[in-house]
Design brief:
globular
């Protein structure tokens, strides 16, 4: 009888905590505007610096090339608010492929740095745009799904100096 009573008490406590499992509400201050996704892990802008000259990683520089481009800025302007308004959590940027997947902590090899802009919802992740930086011709591209081709887009070419010094 005592065991039965303990089981009921534990069940009630577990049920109470399980029913109160609401996601935490985030304010815009708490939600970073840009997230970088590595396979299954989401991190906020990588802060890898080497001591002394404070150079960033190749992955960081290529991410900056993307996130400072006018086309990217145009696509994500107001996107976080729209996603939250539609019941989503936020949006992010995921590095899906890299010429050096081990160094960049991504799952797949690609001759380019391949990015995906995605919207996060509690039950799914929706990719809304794809970008690719080609290290051979030093060009940033947006993937056009309708025509199934990469289209070159503008970006801050001053970042290529950092890219060349770090990644070549």
């Amino acid at each position: 009888m005592k065991t039965f009573r303990n089981i009921i008490i534990v069940s009630i406590i577990v049920t109470a905590f399980a029913c109160n499992n609401q996601p935490l509400k985030q304010t815009e201050k708490d939600t970073p505007a840009i997230k970088i996704q590595n396979h299954d892990t989401v991190i906020v802008k990588p802060k890898n610096k080497t001591k002394g000259n404070k150079l960033k990683t190749c992955k960081y520089i290529v991410t900056m090339i993307l996130t400072t481009s006018p086309r990217y800025k145009q696509l994500v302007k107001g996107l976080n608010e729209a996603v939250v308004k539609n019941g989503g959590l936020n949006f992010g940027v995921g590095l899906e492929g890299s010429p050096n997947p081990k160094r960049d902590s991504v799952c797949c090899y690609s001759s380019n740095y391949d990015f995906s802009v995605y919207e996060s919802y509690t039950d799914r992740q929706l990719s809304t745009a794809r970008f690719s930086f080609n290290p051979n011709d030093k060009q940033l591209y947006e993937y056009d799904a309708v025509q199934d081709q990469l289209k070159p887009i503008e970006f801050d070419r001053n970042l290529l100096i950092k890219y060349k010094s770090l990644c070549e």
